[in-house]
What does this fold into?
Amino acid sequence: SRNEVERMGVIFHDMLHQIHHQFETLKNLDDHRRTLLADLSHDLRTPLANLQGYIETLSINSDKLSEDDKKKFIDISLRNARNLKRLIDQIFELAYLESGQVKLHLETFPLGELLHDVVAKFDLKARDKNINLKVVPERFDYLVYADIEKLERVLTNLIENAIRHTPEYGEVLLKADVTDNKIRVSVVDTGVGISKNEVAFIFDARYQASNSKPDRNLHAGLGLAISKKLIKLQ
It folds into this structure.
């Protein structure tokens, strides 16, 4: 009947609209990945070129360099090598998460122990900047059911980010609050903060806030993107 033909027409129209929407989504995703790959290639090239330059200088002019200069060049080379490894590790981690093949290993464990273990990893770095880093409350006995390794990775990313953007004599707190039998874990700092207009973008790969301050280490801007994907998995 005419009504059936009209209904079929509406269904086909909706299907075409959905296919077009999916096609545009894939196209935008592909464009985003191309841009991300180009940016990351540039980031890889910089420490690699520096590393190669200093090693070549040490190799060619070793007899002409003083011991102090040799030590300086070696230290710079090591720093570039560490930056390069950190960037490559993050690229592989993000690619692994986006592949959709990540498996969760859920278990019950005391959350307090994990929070203190994560804070302990950053004790020296916090002391170097005279930052007060601590767990609040200091002692509590709560059990949670989660993937402990992935949760540790998230907290590590957040605390590392907080320390980097918190000035000397500041404070970084790893807080646990309990409401209605649910635990909320927060990383709170006295850092430079971020404008409300930029908050929605901080978990995008490669995004850097306008007030972020550069330092000697290379940051690919993937830590928060990785953290968001790990949280969504759980």
Remarks:
- The chain has a mean pLDDT of 80.
